[in-house]
Design goal:
Layout (H helix, E strand, L loop, with lengths): L22 E5 L5 E5 L5 E4 L2 E4 L10 E4 L5 E5 L3 H7 L9 H10 L7 E5 L5 H10 L4 E6 L2 H15 L6 E5 L2 H4 L5 E7 L7 H7 E11 L2 H14 L6 E4 L5 E4 L2 E4 L9 E6 L33 H15 L4
Parallel strand pairs: 7-8, 7-10, 8-9, 10-11
Antiparallel strand pairs: 1-2, 1-6, 3-4, 5-6, 11-15, 12-15, 13-14
Helix pairs in contact: 2-3
Amino acid sequence: MSETPSAPHGAEHRRGPFKPGDLVQLTDTKGRHHTFPLQPGRQFHTHKGSVDHDALIGAVEGVLVRSSGGMDYLALRPLLADYVLSMPRGAAVVYPKDAAQIVSMADIYPGARVLEAGVGSGALTCTLLRAVGDSGAVYSYERREDFAMIAAKNVRTFFGGEHPAWTLCVGDLVSAIRPQEVDRVVLDMLAPWECIDSVAKVLVPGGALICYVATTTQLSRTVETLRDHGRFAEPAATETLLRTWHVEGLAVRPDHRMVGHTGFLVTARRIADGVDLPPRRRRPAKGADGEDTWAPDAPGDDREAQSAAREARLARRGELP
């Protein structure tokens, strides 16, 4: 008779009645959230009075609890997206919309071995650990010890203890990287192009690299570094914008505020050693090579001469169709 598989780490804190140590999220009538761990004998204080922790311990999710000031709160466990926006921060967090894209676009699966650089406050780390599960591995690198301590506490709080798949290393990625192979690499740092060569040595052929950068200058340099490196397929750059909607009866419209630009994602696949990719056959945009290009409607131009010069430049770069 086969044994019943054990529950994934942290699952016991995500289901059933509230227990001591569980996270609870109280939502008031205006939609404001208050998140805290339950401890016997303690109280949670708000400007609308206090709520006894003991009134929640043993209760099921979705109940209403009333404060001493007469305010009703809806009690639920926080979703991961709620938790990362309310947890203590050292560095800015990767927003849930970007974390979801990272897991999807990098195809981070249960059992995957993931290298993460730039832990920050641990928001993306929680998402990666959820994706790889207990059988996977997340190797996280963080330069700043104070950020690493905040991230470690946030991860422990969310999962209810140390996660068996997580290894945290304080130090610079290039100098501290370990030689073990990984299936995916996630870089959330100021200058990811400085680490491309190091991560290429541990990323398996076919593995995915994804970089999270904030500005267009970082985006350009990261993409060009990957193109010039020679061990990655053509990178793809994306941005995700999230807009909520107001819905009340027939009053249906976009909300006045949205989560707009937070960062760009650059994704590239590792190719096998010894493989030389054929040159790209995509025509570059006008001015991409830093030289003036022919404008068809410009008066007084020698069109044939300029067209021939442009084709010669493209031929030298191997980018003619």
